[in-house]
Amino acid sequence: MMCCIRRAMLFLFASMCLSAGSGSCGPSPVSGLDDRTPQVRLDSPGDARDQLTVRALLDGDVPGVVHNGYFMAIGETEPPADRLSGTLHFSETTMATPLPDSTWEGRGQSVFPEFSLSFVSHGRHLIPLRLRILLSGVGGASFWNIIVGPGRVWREPADGGYSRASFPFTLTSNGVGQARNGVATFVHNASEISNVAIQVTQETAPIDTYLRVDFHALVPASYEPAEIEEAADSIAAFERERAMKLPVRPWTDLNAADLARREFHEGTLETDVSAAALLIDGVLYVQELDTRAAGAYPYPEAMRHGVFSVTKTLGMGLSMFYIAQRFGDNVFDALITDYVPILADDPGWRGVTFSNTLDMATGNVGGEKGLSIHYFIVARTADAKLRAIRDLPDAPPAPGESFNYASTHFFVLSYALNAYVKARAGPDADYWLMLKEDVLRPLGIETLPLSRTIENDGMLGTPIMGWGAYPTLNEAARIAQLLQDEGRFGDQQLLSQSKVREALSEAWHPGYDTGGNQSYFHSVWRRPAHLSRCTVHVPTMSGHGGNLVMMLPNGLTAIRFGDDNHYDVTPMVRSTERYRSSCR
Fold first, then answer.
1. Residue 571: its H or E element
2. Which residues contact 254 (CB under 8 A, 6 or more apart)?
3. Would you give the end-to-end CA distance of the chain in angstroms?
4. Is the CA virtual torsion 472, 473, 478, 479 positive or negative?
5. Mean of pLDDT values over 478-496
6. From CA 97, how far away is CA 30, in angstroms rounded?
7. Contact between 392 and 353 (Cβ < 8 Å)
8. pLDDT digits (tens, 9 = 90+) for 371-416
9. Coil, strand or helix: which one is 499?
10. Handedness of CA 153, 156, 159, 161 (dihedral sign)
11. Is residue 388 classed as helix, strand or coil in its secondary structure?
């Protein structure tokens, strides 16, 4: 009994403060480790490879964390001698890391996950055939799921008959949505591969909840060569997405780039920022995506970010605007109890509409901290999560009267929206798959990994939507621009114009007062930015840790992903004034 009480108390201190407007969370139960201590920078490679050599990868003799440059081509290179086509099998492996193996979220946090994934090489690119979240953290010893991104293949003359490959990956969990970014490399010939060196040197892991630490390991792996039937489709999707990505230029190309960068990060440490960018007239100006000590991340365009409650807008808000365009704006007036049977006789949910839920004005307490959200987090199936929500108390306000931040309610809306589209498009319909086909693909986004429930029958789970989206900078910027353009892309109206206008513009709807001269409506925060000539209210996607995607009144989009819980938008907006003013 005493251990159970202690575990519950430990959780209360470690619980997520998921409200994107506040950074006040309890200390981590593993806060004895100083994860913010600066590290000595690792040396970058010279002209010749002296780390991660063929012999080291084959014999299992590799160092700890090295400069990320060693995971990429060094010196003069040639096309690979052998084409990769087949399935790679990765073994569960203990990683070297100061992170404790077990925290309140679960065990196995020092274990690299076991998984199998098909790859095909295409020129000098390495393409994984599944870009979604691989649920390797279910059933095995590892805590982690994994997302694998497109990589590179090449040959270095000193490697003899071997070719090289590397790819980026992101470790995620079945919990709340942290993302730990790593890179992997191996050598191969026509029939076999070496061990795979991996390291993780960057993360989106808020300082009050998760430790920011490195991982490294040498992972035993095997290769099954085979021609893959769907390879042509994956290559076509890869090329289609490459062709439609936003043009990217370095931040240093901007006028007064250094000053703008300092203002952009005022109040925060740059070492606490995972990525930052400014979208101006269709061009994405990106600051170098650096890591703690291992140099620049070698696949900056593939880096995925755990953006926490940014998911509420990037995922749930976007989905509601899309379903409104497809089936009509009256979806916002649909009743939750008509589509979520377990809540049908719950007096707290009586009269609650889809719109009330998206606005976080349900009149229910919901779950946000401590044990009120713990049982929801650890539940895996949709039914278990809904039962955890049903057990939460009612709140005094009637639906639609006042704002009450509650991440759990976005799952209720997600479940209800899926039932809504099944009733109209058939029992196999899934709103997120529909959105991917009708909205994301036209934007040039082939995938946007999203956490779902894990169902015992193997059926596709329900998107969590209170957290769990893992966008790249390009994907976040593309979606923000679509909202800036009132849901129109080219000659296609992809989202309900009227509902997007309500979300972004006070002129269309003032939203709910959340205090601090800010408001909230349809999953979008409107945050005040106090400039020298005016004060503007900036439509913002906001997530725990200080993750911000701001759709500025001047038409620009400012993005900063980080983990130090800094939410003041004024310096970021001020830094853009030299390029285009938001004051009318």
1. helix 570-576
2. 260, 278, 285, 579
3. 63
4. positive
5. 98
6. 13
7. no
8. 778 899 999 999 999 999 998 877 667 899 999 999 999 999 999 9
9. helix
10. positive
11. helix
Pairing verdict, β 283-286 and 248-250: parallel
What gap in Å lies between CA 304 and CA 288, rounded to an integer? 15
Residue 294 tokens, joined: 């291992």
Residue with token string 């970014």: 181
> What is d(CA 523, CA 409) in angstroms, rounded to the nearest whole number?
12
Q: What is the mean pLDDT of the chain?
A: 91
Return the bridge partners of 153, or none. Answer: 165
pTM for the full predicted model: 0.94
Q: What is the pLDDT of residue 40?
A: 72
> What does the DSSP assignment read for 249-272?
EEGGGSTTHHHHHHHHTTTS-GGG
Confidence of residue 130 (pLDDT cuts 50, 70, 90): confident
Pick the CATH number of 310-443 from 3.60.70.12, 3.90.180.10, 3.90.209.20, 3.40.710.10: 3.40.710.10
Rounded to whole angstroms, how far apart are CA atoms 406 and 198? 37
CA distances from 284 to 249, 303, 476, 485 (A): 6, 15, 11, 16
Q: With 90 as the cut, is the pLDDT of residue 15 above it?
A: no
Q: Which amino acid is located at 261 in the chain?
A: R
Q: What stretch of H or E contains 284? A: strand 283-286
* 200 and 181 Cβ atoms separated by less than 8 Å: yes
- Predicted confidence at residue 9, as pLDDT, reads 31
Q: Which pLDDT score is estimated for 351?
A: 95
360: left (phi over 0), alpha (psi -120 to 50) or beta: left
Residue 187's contacts (CB-CB under 8 Å, 6 or more residues apart) are 54, 57, 58, 159, 162, 163, 164, 165, 193, 194
Strands (E), 437-484: none
- pLDDT tens for each residue of 135-163: 987 788 999 999 999 999 999 999 999 99
- Enter the tokens of residue 327: 């089936």
In eight-state DSSP terms, residue 488 is E
- Per-residue pLDDT, averaged over 564-573, amounts to 94
| Burial class, 434, CB count within 10 angstroms (exposed 0-12 / middle 13-18 / buried 19+) | middle
Amino acid present at 214: D
What is the three-state SS of 78-144?
ECCCCCCEEEEEECCEECECCCCCCECCECCCCEECCEEEEEEEECCEEEECCCCCECCCCCCCCCC
Average pLDDT over residues 79-86: 95
Judged against a pLDDT cut of 50, whether residue 8 lies above it is answered with no
Domain ranges of the chain: 39-228, 310-443
